[in-house]
Amino acid sequence: MYKKLQVFTKTSNFRQAIKLVECPLVKPQDEEVRVKNIFAGVNATDINITAARYFTDGKLPFDIGLEALGVVDEIGSNVTTFKKGQPVLALTSSGFSEYVYSSPKNLVPLPELKPNYLVTYVNGLTATIGLDKAGHVKAGDKVFVTAAAGGTGQIVVQWAKHRGAYVIAMTSSEKKAEYLKQLGADFIINYKTDNIDQVLTEKFPDGIDVVWETVGGEIYSTLFKHLAIRGRMVVIGSITNYSSEQSHGFGDVPISNFQTKILMRSLSVTGFMLLNYHDCFPEYFGQLISKVHKGEIKAVVDLGEQTSDGKFFGLEQVARAEEYLHGGKNLGKVVVQIQEP
């Protein structure tokens, strides 16, 4: 038997949505690989899935968890591309589980068993593909990054710098600001102590070329106002609204004369949903895994070791990890260790 989390109640309250269940540990089918899951990634959008907003047909109960990282435990008779004991990243919908059954096409081989490689999937691909294909970032651009010290934000900062941009990073604490400086951010805004509108007006009167927007609400409206001529806003999410029980999880953003503003200033506002860029995955995965392995990209993970209740270990700790993420307390990507290797 093995344990996994499943959603039994459709709600954005993760703790209320899930139950821990037991399943029989069976051999994989001929075309399957069974992975012993050691680390699972926590993503802000997990609570959109528990609320059945997307990535599920909503039939209860259903599995949860987008990322699993572990070792190949058992191989189906027709599988020739993987071997037992090999470290892999599983692209899945059941990552909060002690074991994952997967098609080989949804497994990515890894050079070593380290949780940092979890950053390369949802976070890393969103950051790199989103900046390149939706933000069209180029050398000399001024790029504003919201939630810059989070799992995705840390990669956005580094990728923008890699492209030759000037990076303005928004965060919430001095500790996170120090980390962002280490990543190469050129200018830091602490949204808890700084007036974003005032700072941007004074320091960047010509506007921002690319805004990486993950927050929604008032911050969205403020940043839209500061787009430069031909500026691009890339909308990744609206995390301030995810925990709402609204059916869609995204709040409305009232911007007066919106069409006039985007027309007269040649602005663009582009939504980015990672799965719509599936064709880009192989190219960008290869780059990200290589750069993380070589230390060319810092992919910090937060296992909750500095919290009062200690490390996120075991499936019972996933709900606490989700609450920690949505409380804005994390530095880097939030990860839960599911079990010992």
From TrEMBL:
Keyword Oxidoreductase: yes
GO molecular function: 15-oxoprostaglandin 13-reductase [NAD(P)+] activity
Enoyl reductase (ER) domain residues: 13-336
Gene Ontology CC: mitochondrion
Keyword Heme listed: no
Top-level EC class as recorded in UniProt: oxidoreductase
Signal peptide boundaries: none
Catalytic activity, EC: 1.3.1.48
Keywords: Oxidoreductase
Short name of any one Pfam family annotated for the protein: ADH_N
Protein name per its UniProtKB record: 15-oxoprostaglandin 13-reductase
Species this protein is from: Dermatophagoides pteronyssinus (European house dust mite)
Lineage, broadest ranks: Eukaryota, Metazoa, Ecdysozoa, Arthropoda, Chelicerata
Gene from which the chain derives: LOC113793606
